[in-house]
Amino acid sequence: MASTYDVVIVGGGIAGLSLASALAGKCTVALVEAEQQLAYHTSSRSARQLIPSYGPPVVRELTVRTLELITADDAGRTRPVLSPRSFLLIGDEETVRAEASGEMRLINHEEALGLCPALKPEAFSAAGLDTGSFGCDAPELLERHRARAEAAGVDIITGARVHSAQRLGSGWEIGAGQEGFSAGVLVNAAGAWADELAVLSGVEKIGLQPYRRTAAIAGVGHPLPEGSPMVAAADDSFYFRREGSDVLISPSEHVPSAAEDARPRPGDVERLVARLNTLTTLGIGPVRTAWTGLRTEAADGVPVVGFDAEARGFFWLAGQGGYGFQTSSGVAELAAALILAGPGAGNGPVSRTAEALAATRWSIRR
Fold this sequence. Notes:
The chain is an alpha+beta fold. Helices cover 27% and strands 30% of the residues. The protein has helices at residues 14-23, 57-74, 93-99, 109-115, 138-151, 194-200, 268-279, 324-341, 352-357, and strands at 3-10, 29-32, 49-50, 82-84, 87-91, 105-107, 126-130, 134-136, 155-157, 162-168, 171-176, 179-188, 209-220, 230-233, 239-243, 246-250, 255-256, 284-297, 304-307, 314-318. Strand 15 and strand 16 (246-250) form a beta hairpin. Helix 1 runs parallel beside helix 5 (138-151), helix 1 crosses helix 8 (324-341) and helix 2 (57-74) packs across helix 8. The longest helix is centred in the first third of the chain and has 18 residues, at 57-74. The chain is elongated, with a radius of gyration of 21 Å. It starts with a strand and ends in a 9-residue tail after the last helix. The relative contact order is 0.19. The mean pLDDT is 94.
């Protein structure tokens, strides 16, 4: 016998968990995750930085809302999710001006060197600074969502890969692992596997493309001081930030990938270390650990949040790209409102933000 819920969420990363948390107590919810642990893939491989000036306008709007929601939730807690950490963009003047947006302001060369003395003066000629950026305790945020969801009755099932899903009558019948589920709404929060889940469900895929993004933690001869900003190249060729007495580094690659448990490719981290040692005085040495996540994007680079155009009750929560954590609470708030209103509510999207993210928008398909 299938267990019956109002909503079944497929995917236990930051997208699925934050939505489960937002829906908890308002309807019956089950979350199913293919892996044995939650947040196993991209959500456990985050750069852990929320940057209000990063991304297209609707992403920046959702980032601001996410920061508001997390800040309110942090109040009175002994372990806050957010910690102030500025974001410094460097490069040539043309590229920095083109990439600076939102609350980022242009600063002079001397000010940039003062903020990050490890940069060699010849490494850049222009800089932008976002002082409203925050470091994010990703494990703490994930745990809060999980705990809030389960406390309000959400059933979370891990090790349950979806093997069947079909529209029957007024709802969906889903098979995952050894269990069956029945729900009025099926939420596709499957990350890099979102298009695969759509096809399995008899829904037209939208052409979501996963891209590789590698990062590593390495020792340094000259550690960055506490309070140092995260530093990124305006041409999106690297970023680095303090990680205790070590440094977190990334080549910021944007290489298409199949949906997989991605791993670093030989030479990628080593080449980045060599480059950063020519641009900084960090003295980067041994690589302690390295990983690769997948940033999955729609054709227009904007997340997809909303009911499918044709498949009634099939809800897309996918294509977050590199904006997953920084938009998570704002997106979950919006998605929960849309789901609770139902697929037949009104004559269209309920807001300008919903319209910009809608699965029905013309710019979404490749």
